[in-house]
UniProtKB/TrEMBL annotation:
GO molecular function: proton transmembrane transporter activity
Family: Belongs to the ATPase protein 8 family.
Species for this entry: Aramus guarauna (Limpkin)
Transmembrane segments: 6-24
Protein's name in the database: ATP synthase complex subunit 8
Membrane-protein topology: Single-pass membrane protein
Superkingdom to which the source organism belongs: Eukaryota
Amino acid sequence: MPQLNPNPWLFIMLTSWLIFSLIIQPKLLSFTLTNPPSNMPTTTTKTTPWAWPWT
């Protein structure tokens, strides 16, 4: 059964993870955010209860 032979697929998987971890991921993480989070103060809004017409 050739599906159980890990010889070529193990090498392909390890190579792809190494490429992703060492080359692609640092390039992606170096981008700056276009909309960085700001430290805005949290404001609470006053809500009024809903006036149901049948109560």
